[in-house]
Design a protein that fits this description.
- It is a single chain.
- This protein is an alpha+beta fold.
- The chain folds into 2 domains: 123 residues, Roll (Diaminopimelate Epimerase, Chain A, domain 1), CATH 3.10.310.10; 127 residues, Roll (Diaminopimelate Epimerase, Chain A, domain 1), CATH 3.10.310.10.
- It is built from 4 helices and 17 strands.
- Strands 1-2-3-4-6-7-8-17 form an 8-stranded mixed beta barrel.
- The longest helix is centred in the N-terminal third of the chain and has 15 residues.
- The N and C termini lie close together (6 Å).
- The relative contact order is 0.18.
- Bound molecules: ligand LBFN2T5F.
- The site of ligand LBFN2T5F has 20 residues, from strand 4, helix 2 and helix 4.
């Protein structure tokens, strides 16, 4: 079975052709994303080639759960199609709708790509978390679900817990029927935020495309920061542009093709 591995600011993905999955998506994700016993990744993008040259992506997290989309994963696939097929503009279907990607700089194997990420929906919300109490934040939908908290601590801790510990609790709390991604956001200035990510289905990651959009849109709507932002995660910075609440957000960041190979025994 052929695979490609790519990453965007350390958020890493395997890319497999949908045709090889044969309904084993969840099983393959759990197996191949394992970092000690297989290739290792935060998720798998299954790339389906449809009639008329259209593409469709199904994203499975490392725990085998299926998500609506990934921002970084989508960009990794766009980078792969740029490298392997010379496509500099590509629209990729996802369960959250189509995402148009444009290569704005190619320095193989690193591609800088701008993606249209849909219209974020931001709703301020306080949740009552068992054993923790009331947690103020925002539910944000950018195609997939996010809960964004604003923090002021140096280490992104909140409510007396590390962000990893609190992120795990929020991500799996039953009030989120389908689970949620969680971001801990610090506003550094009108034009810059820094954040940490606890991802539904894989835990802490060094970057997230949808997490970048969720954190940025929450900061724009609820903290009045600029509509063009630099959003810094542990794996690097991405840029977001959101002219108004009704418009599509654009996300720009890198994606790097790491390797391609064959999985033994499959
Ligand atoms: N890292 C991704 C998001 C992947 C999906 C997420 N874990 C979910 O379950 O919604 C990104 O870059 O957006």
């Amino acid at each position: 079975m052929d695979f490609v591995k790519a990453h965007a600011c350390g958020n890493d993905f395997l890319i497999l052709e949908e045709a090889v999955a044969q309904r084993r998506h969840a099983e393959l994700a759990k197996k191949l994303c394992s970092r000690n016993t297989s290739i290792g990744a935060d998720g798998i993008e299954f790339l389906e080639r449809r009639a008329g040259g259209e593409f469709f992506l199904r994203l499975f997290n490392a725990d085998g759960s299926e998500a609506e989309l990934s921002g970084n994963g989508t960009r990794c696939v766009a980078a792969w199609l740029a490298q392997s097929e010379g496509l500099t503009q590509v629209t990729l279907g996802t369960h959250a709708g189509k995402r148009a990607c444009t290569v704005i700089e190619a320095s193989d194997p690193v591609y800088t790509i701008e993606s249209e990420m849909g219209v974020p929906r931001v709703m301020a919300r306080a949740i009552d978390l068992p054993g923790v109490g009331i947690v103020e934040g925002a539910m944000v939908n950018v195609g997939n679900p996010h809960f964004v908290l604003f923090v002021h601590t140096d280490d992104f801790s909140a409510h007396g817990m590390s962000w990893q510990e609190l992120g795990a609790k929020i991500s799996t709390d039953p009030m989120f029927a389908h689970g949620t991604n969680v971001e801990f956001v610090k506003v550094l200035s009108k034009s810059e935020i820094e954040f940490r990510i606890f991802e539904r289905g894989c835990g802490p990651t060094t970057s997230s495309g949808t997490g970048t959009c969720a954190s940025s849109s929450a900061a724009m709507v609820l903290r009045g920061v600029d509509r063009e932002l630099t959003a810094i995660a542990q794996g690097g910075a991405q840029r977001t542009v959101w002219p108004s609440n009704q418009e599509v957000m654009r996300l720009t960041g890198p994606a790097e093709i790491i390797c391609a190979g064959k999985v033994a025994g499959l």
